[in-house]
Amino acid sequence: MYKLIKPILFKMDPEQAHGRMMRALKIVQKHPTLLSMIDRIFHYKNDMLAQDVAGIHFTNPVGLAAGFDKSCEVPKALQYSGFGALELGGITPKPQPGNPKPRMYRLPEDRALINRMGFNNIGMNKALSNLRRHSYDLPIGINVGVNKMTPYEERYQDYIKVLDTFKNDATFFTINISSPNTANLQNFHDKDEFSMLTKAIKDYRENHELSQPIFLKLTSDLELEGFKHILDPIVDTFDGVVLANTTQQRDGLQSDNRSEGGGLSGRPLFERNRDLVRWAYQQTKGTFPIIATGGIFSAEDAIEMMRNGASLVQIYSSLVYEGPGLTAKINKDIVQYLKQHGYHNVSELIGLDA
Ligand SMILES: Cc1cc2nc3c(=O)[nH]c(=O)nc-3n(C[C@H](O)[C@H](O)[C@H](O)COP(=O)(O)O)c2cc1C
């Protein structure tokens, strides 16, 4: 069906097409019969895909990456769409409109997207009310960002405000220091800035009861030398790492939109992010959970990320190109692979090639 709809969607501006999808999901979310219909079509279930990571039970390893549902508008509909987890947001303390439009571009020849959304979201309080409209039976992650207008030296407190607001509702958090679309946010990758952030998070955890795991999402542009400097504090402060967000590199791209500013996602990210995953897995000797994102279009890609050390994967750009049936297809093909190779559970793949 997506093959029929895709040409129509691809004639629209990408953000407008996304808006249409969101409106459709809002309609689905209101009707239990539609929810059970999409569950039947898009939700592939098999116990071989289930595992516990960072103390959370995931019924399958394919999660929705952050940025699709930035204000927790359609989590109920997404729950029935076959994902093993949802990462919602990025959410900031105050509402903000994000960057001027257009701010999202397709690069079809490269199976990629460029976005410079700039944390457009309705703010943490309204996003929380949206989330509370429903109940969920899959892990709900909150991707945490900072407001553009927050004074530079106070920005780490924005993360704490969002953690505190969602402390009773999220299953896990992801601290996003890697968006290229908020000026200087990536400075948190520098050792000194990073230690301010880790101190704030540790202090918060010591003084409040926050039992949920907190993951950290790094940029794809991180050099291994820089990663080395912050790896120990990452392991010491966080419960896992998401590798990795978009890149600002534009090497080898074919599409007309390649010189647009913002973060590049999709297929061109795959090898860079896989190498970050492998390096982090080796350095931590497989003891630290890794969630892989970036250019995962198939079960083969998901398996490669897992064999290189990821426990879980997340997808976004591939959904734009392949449609909502992709999650079930990846899960189904992973099970086929497990059976063919004599594995009993998806967790047996983690780190095999690292
Ligand atoms: C339009 C768009 C918005 C995004 N917004 C966020 C965000 O708010 N927070 C975040 O951590 N990542 C965000 N991302 C990055 C994705 O979560 C993901 O890490 C990245 O796109 C790589 O995965 P992919 O190649 O499967 O898309 C966004 C990506 C896109 C395309």
TrEMBL record:
The keyword Flavoprotein applies. GO terms for cellular component: cytoplasm; plasma membrane. Its main location: membrane. Its cofactor is FMN. It is found in: Membrane. It is an enzyme of class 1 (oxidoreductase). Its EC number is 1.3.5.2. Residues 48-337 form the Dihydroorotate dehydrogenase catalytic domain. It catalyses: (S)-dihydroorotate + a quinone = orotate + a quinol; (S)-dihydroorotate + NAD(+) = orotate + NADH + H(+). Pfam families: DHO_dh (PF01180). PROSITE patterns: DHODEHASE_1, DHODEHASE_2. SUPFAM superfamilies: FMN-linked oxidoreductases (SSF51395). GO terms for biological process: 'de novo' pyrimidine nucleobase biosynthetic process; 'de novo' UMP biosynthetic process. Belongs to the dihydroorotate dehydrogenase family. Type 2 subfamily. Catalyzes the conversion of dihydroorotate to orotate with quinone as electron acceptor. This is Dihydroorotate dehydrogenase (quinone). The lineage of its organism: Bacteria, Bacillati, Bacillota, Bacilli, Bacillales.
